């Protein structure tokens, strides 16, 4: 039996704390995959009896280091449980309790306890050794099952093994159902009120109308109004045909904006006063006219369970309903709470929790912490429907609750001091360009506040009423590019202000003229390049906002900003403002939506005024200490890698492939080539195999006419060859480019010939960033490489091994540019700058053997294309093993102790690059 458990407020909600990344210096075992975890959990199922060993075995099954588990078991300081006689707890990992009582009731109490807030465990687990109940504190998911069935539920704890849950929320019926029904009502009202959106204040009125409805539904389900007060009123006071529904709703909204009951119509006197801007009636707004079915839909909507909605998710779904073209995505949303926490936790929550931990026994210190958090301001300058602000708000409220609980334990007078939270929603600022999102954001923050008030009540048995809404919120409608951010959230230099969010990413092709103009406006007088991505604008304005102050920022960004040319364009500017990166998350997927499952690859970049605190790079579930984080998000000095004409490290020269410029005449597809050879076998002497990036990866056979000064006249005796050469002549002659026209004199040859009759390496110019390895080719002397790829001639297999290694991949990912979700290889930046230490003959031999093994395995799977072979989900085990062998060998060339992460590889590569370029500069000077 499995049971889904709601908390008292009914929300399946995010809880404090996180799956804290492992420290890189912690002794770790090889990462487990899904199958391995499944196999390791299986023996824990179906036992006759259970005891405390269960939790230790469980942690081991997910790959937690044995030493740690033993220390936890032996009751060392690693076990931070408040009551070690029945609890086991490890900071950031687990809070486990055994009980003789009701596990569920205990979980409810434990999950919001001061100890859990203090130590931020990813999972809170309670068991009576019959039933296990647990909560994933980061995504808010809860589960209950028979302990003997642990093998059926092992996926729940996968974040322990570094496998984050894609929080697919299609099952979160409340959000999806409600959003869908709202969509129906929206459509019905659109049909009943033609031309409404074209009216001057039409769109805004409609947006306000829908947010008001949402508030009413939520309010009547969560004790802000009396139960079903709003829906019942519509049901009993309006005509079935809907004709007077609009008038009635207008009156209800007015009543909600009227302070005294005696000033309201008698039948609406029971509606409370809400205020807070939401119901402030203005002259130019209107309520749409209703039809019979619109009224019916409204009543049905009222009957849904609104208290279960998640404001951080529902907001964006709701937005999708009213935004043309977005409706299809509805119900396909993923919660992004773990991703949002990547900005919030290292930015301030981790430090606040540490302060809580340090002051746990001191009323004075806890009081000071409360003062501190009540002053913190959070600002999202592209806040959408407010999800980042909501999560930040809830995290701070939960910390406040933890502190209050502890203060109450230390001194029972304390708790009663609070009739209102000191975390004021006025300290949460946003800018958003979309009017509807602004309304939803403001509303969602109120809803979040109410949910936290409910949690407060559960804990302290004290109600904090939501209404009348005193705070109006600080989310402003407008264009963040044009607004002065200090006008929205003043920065006096001393306030603790945190800028967070995931600003919009539009590739340069998707930018509107207005956005391009925004960009020009922002970079004026900065000397910055127009070629920067639009999202850079938030970093530029953010950097200008925080410079010289106590405030900091952490934005989620497409990882293109920390790759290739973009780094050179942006990063020196940020450094010139005397800012540093305190922490960064390297690439991870941001998946919001099932239909676009690939998601975008993003990173999180923090900026702050330089200070001595430790810097961290987060990669996957690892936390790596860094001395300095450069623009490539690697531990290294602040430099940028620029174009270089020749290889830095004595590799053979690289060039683009050969360019035909032939109007399709010199290139011959496989059937036509066969035909040519069959008709005149002499043709074999005049053709060669041809491959470019696409042909190589997709396994398409192509050929070229490859003629020389000496043989082209004889070759022209073959009619088909003659026809093709004439075709080239015609094509080039027609060109308006002088250089091309000139090439018509030599129609029998390629426009740019770089081919040499040696073994060669082909490097695809573009390759999907999903692949672990760019499928690089090693070709014989008879194949011509086209200009859609790079070519290295005189190439020995050991060079192929180096280039296909993880070390080179890590280098490429960092310094190459990106084109949408493809890596864009560059000869002058990636290859020519790639640092390679001097290699002995023995090493080259070993590399050669490993390279040949990869080529053999590819050959063995010759029925598959390279696209198939290098699909990371389908890569054959023997091919992966052959690559791993190269990786290990190449790693050992760069580091005696090997690497656990690409970040470590990069750090060494950057160090080597700096040393080599410095030595080169010195040598240049001496000359
Ligand atoms: C990637 S979304 C992030 C919103 C929210 N955090 C989320 O996850 O749904 C970017 C938001 O920026 C808003 N936006 C785009 N251009 C803007 C601008 N120039 N000024 C302010 N907001 C803008 C969009 O409307 C969108 O809501």
TrEMBL record:
Residues 33-190 form the MmeI-like N-terminal domain. Coiled coil: none annotated. InterPro entries: MmeI_C (IPR046818), MmeI_hel (IPR046819), MmeI_Mtase (IPR046816), MmeI_N (IPR046817), MmeI_TRD (IPR046820), N4_N6_ade-DNA_methylase (IPR050953), SAM-dependent_MTases_sf (IPR029063). Residues 204-279 form the MmeI-like helicase spacer domain. Residues 361-618 form the MmeI-like DNA-methyltransferase domain. Residues 844-918 form the MmeI-like C-terminal domain. This is site-specific DNA-methyltransferase (adenine-specific).
